[in-house]
């Protein structure tokens, strides 16, 4: 009887071991299957995202190509109406080149200050005036579609927050690469900086030469235009304003 009992216990122990082994194997198989399935799902999801992204990119490229083609046709019409032969050698690709140039000169319509400033603002305990001057700018007069160009001078009084200095020049680039008038351009630059940084004050001065005055109309070769916008403390405190103008406008 004793021997039989020992035998039964041994068998029972073996059965338990076998069951444990099978359970472990089952768990391992299910885990690996789940991992494989998850891997396939993730891979398929990534492929879908990439496909969607490529599809959107292709749609944008197609739309840009259509716009370029329409602008090219418009320049062809303009040249023809001016009395030019658009089929002569020197003008064969001029409408296309002009279309590409116009797209570049107005690329600011596709850009925003948020795009360039989100990763370039930093907390900093600095409250003194920050100035970036002599920022070259080129723009197109919206009245005659001829260039005006010059320099922008920018200052702001930080309110516990500063921005990468090159970003101020990028803001000038965004708004100048649109059809503009100098007065609005000055205000847009100042407002963009004020909204993004919430500083104690912003000052912007632009000095520019307008080809609509130089090469047409009154044809005054030495005429230049100066515009300014003062916000916050630069507008409220004459001393702060004078300091900015003394540092930027002296020759």
Order of helices and strands: HHHEEEEHEHEHEHH
Assembly category: single chain
Residue fraction in strands: 15-25%
What is the helix content?
Answer: 55-70%
Output the structural class. Answer: alpha+beta
| Major β-sheet strand ordering | 5-2-3-6-7
Indicate the mean pLDDT.
Answer: 85
Give the N-to-C terminal Cα separation.
117 Å
Low-confidence stretches: none
**Integer-rounded radius of gyration:** 34 Å
| Number of distinct beta strands | 7
Number of helices: 8
Largest sheet, strands/sense/barrel? 5 strands, mixed
Kindly describe this structure.
It contains 8 helices and 7 strands. The protein is flat. The relative contact order is 0.09. The protein has 251 residues and is an alpha+beta fold. It has helices spanning 2-81, 94-105, 113-117, 165-176, 182-197, 211-214, 233-236, 238-249, and strands spanning 121-123, 130-141, 147-157, 161-163, 179-180, 201-210, 225-232. The strands form 2 sheets. A 5-stranded mixed β-sheet has the order 5-2-3-6-7, with helices on both faces. A two-stranded antiparallel sheet has the order 1-4.
Descriptors:
251 residues, 5-stranded mixed sheet, two-stranded antiparallel ribbon
Task: Write the SSE topology.
Elements: H1 2-81, H2 94-105, H3 113-117, E1 121-123, E2 130-141, E3 147-157, E4 161-163, H4 165-176, E5 179-180, H5 182-197, E6 201-210, H6 211-214, E7 225-232, H7 233-236, H8 238-249
Parallel strand pairs: 2-5
Antiparallel strand pairs: 1-4, 2-3, 3-6, 6-7
Helix pairs in contact: 1-2, 4-5
